[in-house]
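Re: the request from the purification team.
They wanted to know what the chain is likely to look like in 3D before they choose a buffer screen. I agreed to run a prediction and write the result into the notebook, where they can find it.
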Amino acid sequence: MKDYPILFFGPMVRAIRAGQKTVTRRMSKRWLRVKAGDRLWVRETWARAYVNGRSLYRADSERDRLTLENRRWRLAIFMPRGVSRILLEATEDAEETELWSMDSAEALREGVEVFRRGGLYYLPGNGDLGVSEPVTAFGLLWDSLHKVGQRWEDKPTVVRVAFKTVSTDTETEVRDG
């Protein structure tokens, strides 16, 4: 069993913590080394909070504008292992797949949000754009994160990593790492 760091942005962190995201797709072939049982520790945007020695996480703070003010947010890529609060476990060996070959169930496993009003699907963190199919919502989300040559319409080959959440420690102590 090996441990790997994995980056997620705020809405995807919230989807993981809510139990809605259980799969991710990555452009880099290096993710093919992930095997069932390997652990993935989540890197996310965070800040040191000197009160009670706890960290703040931007995914928790994005909806509360007061906690965003006067914070020195640190980029997820620089998060040390000791500050990570979310631990995932790969449930299958990573596999290469065509991005556009996913179905609705798989798009929902990617963390696309479903709202009851009107039965529309929404991009995480973008509640004003509703579409009728979860795959369409995921395609829009994918395109918002990737450059030309890697976008949905480019039909890239990606690495699919399925996981389960092992822990989401909301009271992680700050430790230098």
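For the purification team: Residues 170-177 have pLDDT under 50 and may be disordered.
Please add any questions underneath this entry.
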